[in-house]
Amino acid sequence: MNTLLITNLFPKVSNPNSGIFIVQRLKHYKTYGVNFDAVSPAYENSKLVVLLKKLLKKQNGEYPLEEYERVKFKPVLIHRNLHTVLMNKISRSYFVKIAERFVGAIEQSFDFREYDLIHAHGMYSVPAGLIAKILAEKYRKPFIVTLHGSDVNILMPRRREIYVSILESASATIFVSKALLEKAKSLGFSGKNAVVIPNGYDETIFKPMDKKAVRKELGIHREGYKYVGFVGNLIPIKRADKLGEIFHLIAKEIPEMFFIIVGDGPLRKKIEKETKGLNIIFTGRLPQKDVAKYMNAMDVMMLPSREEGFGAVVIEAQACGTCVIGSSNGGIPEAIGFPEYVVEEGDQFEERFAKRVVQVLREGYDMNKLLERAKGFAWKYIVEKEIDVYKRVVRKP
Fold this sequence. Notes:
With 397 residues, this protein is α/β, with parallel strands linked by helices. The protein has helices spanning 20-29, 47-55, 82-90, 92-107, 128-139, 150-155, 160-169, 178-186, 211-218, 243-253, 268-274, 288-297, 312-319, 332-336, 349-363, 367-374, 379-394; strands at 2-7, 35-45, 67-68, 71-72, 74-80, 117-121, 143-147, 172-175, 194-196, 226-231, 257-262, 280-284, 300-303, 323-327, 342-343. 43% of the residues lie in helices and 18% in strands. InterPro entries: Glyco_trans_4-like_N, Glycosyltransferase_grp1.
């Protein structure tokens, strides 16, 4: 089976781990007899757009890597000037024009007679799902769209009619959580062609290690201390703006605390300022093998996000035997799997969240229960479910 995969989530020059769950699933495709070409559509910003983004402290479009962990991607870029940015903000139809420009660029690089289906991951400012729909209709191919989180939670309400049209016309839609599917249905999607398949984890990387030994290896061992961490982008939707407050509340109850923040983002300086005086380390972005070490070093990992499609970091941490406490938003409760580790959104959230972390640190948890749950999310099982959808769509045994 031959698949053209168009993804908004891909490794970037400055952040190779961006879209790592796309890379990981593609590494398993050949096991199931699926050949693929992966397209990473992106913008090539004008100097004025680059300057504007810098002034607004927004991340500039970054160049896609052509290969990461032996998985190859074909970057397809279109030029974006200030006019393009403004029109995309105010015009419903301009979103379609952008997709059509990408379609033209992709057509120059691929022979669509070779493919059995087209699979799009994401519908963000670069509309991979719409690109797939246009190509599928033009070349009479089935297409699949996978939705990952912010594309539904944030962007779909702004372009409801277009998004619903794309999802309804797809041969299948894949959502990474039941919560994300329900959000799309609340916005007008029927759900008739939907299936829920979460992201997975690499069992060769995320596995239990001796906590004391790994802390010594990382140079952060302190006898008798508890360790709490966060893994992710330091942005408001992850509630990273409240990490300092939550950390201080925890440290007030348990003074011998060490905090770990793995990741980076625009809120880093704010968090560094707010956490002065605490025992804390900021690692920045790391390769997955190093992320796994820091997850193992934690007693508890926090995921207090305001929105989350699924929360693959939850499964990765559980596969390391580390308890995750998260908010009740989006797919986080599904990822955690244990209601006792979910803190309901609402008044005094930060205080209640910190209190739950403190309780778990004092009372402990069953590591084996976490490890057993994580086993079913290994990539080989997740990809198998995805390939079953492929076979159904193209009607091949």
